[in-house]
Design goal:
This protein has about 140 residues and is α+β, with helices and mostly antiparallel strands. Helices cover about 30% and strands about 30% of the residues. It is built from four helices and seven strands.
Length: about 140
């Protein structure tokens, strides 16, 4: 992969830096919520550069559900397009790091089950979906 380009969003950049510089022992929760986050490392679809994004930790067995909510914004977060372009990712969950492959969820029954699991892990997702006309994309990251 190419060089790492930190997020232009300050809190994201700071969280990734703290998470990684501590070896996954600090910065592992979303701001003041106390809820756990993971770091998803992927390749930018335009630049080819390494990108790192903190996302809510939503586990489904040994897989992770990645929710493209962006707080209910009208557009998908950029990382959604990165994953659609290149499904190879690395997931950091605390001190553990795994290479994984993602797939976008399209099956309605699987999507409903994973959406419920996601909302249980982070209840604001339900409000985020109400704020936007787009269907919030879900991806499953599975061990390679």
């Amino acid at each position: 992969m190419s060089d790492y380009i930190p997020s232009p969003v300050e809190w994201v950049r700071n969280q990734v830096e703290l998470y990684e510089s501590s070896g996954g022992t600090q910065g592992t929760t979303l701001r003041d919520t106390g809820l756990p986050v993971i770091i998803v490392t992927n390749k930018g679809n335009k630049t080819g550069a390494v990108r790192k994004t903190p996302l809510m930790r939503v586990k489904d067995g040994n897989a992770y559900v990645l929710v493209g909510s962006q707080g209910g914004a009208p557009k998908n977060p950029v990382w959604v397009y990165n994953l659609r372009s290149d499904p190879e990712v690395e997931i950091r969950d605390g001190t553990d790091v795994w290479p994984m492959k993602v797939r976008e969820v399209s099956d309605a029954a699987e999507r409903a089950r994973l959406w419920d699991l996601s909302v249980a892990a982070f209840p604001p997702y339900a409000d985020y979906q109400k704020r936007t006309d787009r269907v919030i994309p879900l991806f499953v990251a599975e061990p390679k």
